[in-house]
Amino acid sequence: MRRVRFQARGHENVIAKHRTTVEITTEAHLTREGTCIIGVQSDRALSEIPPEIKTLVRSEKTEIILRLKAANLTEIITGKGHPGLRYSDKVSMVARKSSFVCERTLMVSADKAASDLNRSFVDTLKDSGVLIECELLFITE
């Protein structure tokens, strides 16, 4: 198992209504149209993930877990690797319920999208002062 930790921040415009994706971005600005974005000002981009992990995620047998903690609340999103994952984006990481892959894709076949997150957790993320402790776990057979 490999682990990567990073932090992001909440934002007053977090809506978390998107039905197929969850996104964390390094950008500081968020409009109400970014319905999948749950965290801004991330201190890590996909392109900064270590090379050995970038190799692991190209296997469909790799389980990818994103654990998010804000205030006293935790959300966990679980998905899979995919041969097309490249982890090259310098701005966003996106967990997808679908199998669509692009440079921003963190995981496919995710068990949750933004709209599936606990609403108390989402309300916490609407505070621009809240720190989101993020942990990625990469589990291989």
Structural features, described:
It is a single chain. The chain is mainly beta. It has a single domain (2-139), classed as Jelly Rolls (Sandwich). Helix content is 9%, strand content 35%. The protein has 2 helices and 8 strands, in the order E-E-E-H-E-E-E-E-H-E. The strands form 2 sheets. It has a 4-stranded antiparallel β-sheet with strand order 1-8-4-5. Strands 3-2-6-7 form a 4-stranded mixed β-sheet, with no helix packed on it. Strand 4 (63-70) and strand 5 form a beta hairpin. The termini are close together. 40% of the residues are buried.
Quick structural overview:
By secondary structure, the chain is mainly beta.
**Shape summary:** globular
Counting helices, strands and paired strands, the structural category is: mainly beta
Q: Which strand order do you get reading across the main beta sheet? A: 1-8-4-5
Low-confidence stretches: none
Number of helices: 2
- The CATH topology annotation reads as Jelly Rolls
Question: From N to C, what is the helix and strand string?
Answer: EEEHEEEEHE
Number of strands: 8
CATH class: Mainly Beta
How many discrete domains? 1
Arithmetic mean of pLDDT: 97
Q: Strand portion, in percent?
A: 25-35%
Specify Rg, calculated over alpha carbons. 14 Å
What's the architecture, going by CATH? Answer: Sandwich
Distance between the termini: 9 Å
The CATH superfamily bears the name mth639 domain like
Helix content: under 10%
How would a crystallographer describe the biggest sheet?
A: 4 strands, antiparallel
